[in-house]
Amino acid sequence: MPVASSSSSHLEPVMPTTSLSSPPIVLTIAGSDSGGGAGIQADIKTISATGSYACSAITAVTSQNTLGVSAIFPIPIEHIHSQLDAIFSDLNVAAVKIGMLADSQIIHAVADKLRQYQPTFVVLDPVMVATSGDVLLRDEAINHLKQRLFPLATVITPNLPEAAVLTGEPLPENESELSQLVSALQQLPCQAVLLKGGHFTQSSHSNDWLITKQQVHCFSADRIQTNNTHGTGCTLSSAITSYLAQGQPLEQAIDSAKHYISQAIFYADQLHVGQGHGPVHHFYVTQSGDLSPILSILGKREN
User: Which residue, among 48, 23, 16, 71, has the nearest Cα to 235 in the 3D structure?
Assistant: First the structure.
């Protein structure tokens, strides 16, 4: 498969068309992580750190920490409707990120509201497979996700196990086995797929592939060895959404988000949160001196 590529290792700070006085509004629709490392909490931290204004609609409340998830309570459908109506009727939402949707009813509720309000950008992170490998959505819900929400998405961001579930293809063990999975992903009813390759742990690089009907583009970064990677998928998809809201084209938004998540992982060991898989460092700029997020907020303010 012909693949174009780029690396975020030396990415220059991006200058979007935003200013401190009017950051674009980004809505995250996802579950709550009581441990603060993933879900709504990670989304809000990411959107804020990358220069946008975060608002949220919660789909489920989880009892969760760095050691795992002990309980999930789906939010009643009528309250999901009321949250989304409250947001869209008042706030000028520039882009929407979608994370955990616990069942078919919630999928239909979110799809109905997106069709009603028609946001310009939708980034869908199909949270379907737990770190343990357990499938979190039933087959019926996965089919509804593909039928109702995929056609509304600007990009979906599955990891390798999720992509295998979505396509019915075997899980590839290395990059040389990707071609069949990529071809199957190109048949999904969505504009684009960002396939996350973080599960290829033997590679010295962490590669993600933007897959459209016409081409495949690889985004590469050095792999960082750390135990603190909780919430990386939520963080990457939220950063992409934030940069799309700021006016960046999709490839550039992914490039910027790849740089942000790489830095957040690099500085994750400065945090000491919990006894298991800790979170990434969403606000690494406060300790690292990396001014990219601040410059991103400032944008073209001087022009």
Answer: 48
**Which amino acid makes up residue 300?**
K
The yes-or-no answer on residue 232 being catalytic is yes
What is the spatial distance between Cα 65 and Cα 279, in angstroms, rounded to a whole number? 10
Active site residue 168: no
pTM above the 0.85 mark? yes
Number of H helices, E strands in the chain: 10, 10
Cβ-contact 231, 248 below 8 angstroms: no
User: DSSP for 33-101?
Assistant: ETTSSSHHHHHHHHHHHTT-EEEEEEEEEEEEETTEEEEEEEPPHHHHHHHHHHHHTTS-EEEEEE---
Better-scored residue on pLDDT, 93 or 174: 93
| pLDDT tens digits for range 266-277 | 999 999 999 999
pLDDT digits (tens, 9 = 90+) for 109-152: 999 999 999 999 999 999 886 655 556 677 889 999 999 999 99
User: How is residue 134 written in tokens?
Assistant: 């357990």
- 155 in helix, strand or coil? strand
**Catalytic residue check, 226:** no
Q: Write down the catalytic residue from 31, 99, 233, 299.
A: 233
Tell me if residue 302 falls in helix, strand or coil: coil
Identified catalytic residue from 28, 46, 232, 235: 232
- Catalytic residue of the set 35, 36, 99, 231: 231
Catalytic residue list contains 234: yes
Alpha carbon distance 265, 232 (integer Å): 8
Give the span between the Cα atoms of 228 and 240, in whole angstroms: 21
Strands 68-74 and 53-65: antiparallel
Q: Which of 46, 62, 229, 241 is flagged as catalytic?
A: 229
